[in-house]
Design a protein that fits this description.
CATH class: Mainly Beta
CATH topology: Immunoglobulin-like
Helix content: 10-25%
Structural class: alpha/beta
Order of helices and strands: HEEEEEEEEHHE
Number of helices: 3
Distance between the termini: 36 Å
Oligomer: single chain
Strand order of the largest sheet: 5-7-8-3-9
Strand content: 25-35%
Length: 153
């Protein structure tokens, strides 16, 4: 009897571990691994609903915040403080545009894809400023070609 209880407990624990949400790290950098200036690394991340992304201010002077209009309906808007880490749990499926406010015009943006996005056209239609427009064009192309960094999967 005791052996059956232990086996059942182990099975429940294993299933719980598999269903646990993932936390991944996105670094905010003055210079990326490819030499590009003012970047999120990785700049394109695919996660599942309930996963958390920790935006880490590896280099000071950066923040992470949502871009108005570039997130799914019902999603929570966030704006981290300059120079501080911010952890965000992504619940709503869709595409989220993220920017570093001080370096947005320099193209410091990222894209988070949660589950199966239903707001692709809406996200693409949001006008972008400066170099951010070019960076998002590249991120959308990578996403549509399937070249997305997956969170721990």
């Amino acid at each position: 009897m005791r052996k059956k209880i232990l086996l059942a407990a182990a099975a429940i624990l294993a299933m719980t571990s598999l269903a646990a949400a993932t936390e991944i790290e996105v670094r905010m950098l003055n210079k990326g691994s490819d030499g590009a200036l003012m970047v999120f690394e990785p700049a394109l991340v695919k996660v599942e609903p309930g996963d958390t992304i920790k935006f880490v201010a590896t280099d000071k002077g950066h923040n992470a915040e949502t871009i108005k209009g570039m997130l799914p309906d019902g999603a929570t808007v966030f704006a981290g403080k300059n120079g501080e880490d911010v952890s965000v749990k992504f619940e709503q499926p869709g595409i989220y545009g993220i920017k570093c406010m001080p370096h947005y015009g320099m193209g410091m943006v990222a894209m988070v894809v949660v589950g199966t996005p239903g707001n692709l056209d809406q996200a693409k239609a949001v006008p972008q400023a400066g170099k951010a427009k070019q960076v998002f064009a590249t991120l959308f192309a990578k996403f549509e070609s399937g070249k997305t960094a997956e969170a721990g999967r």
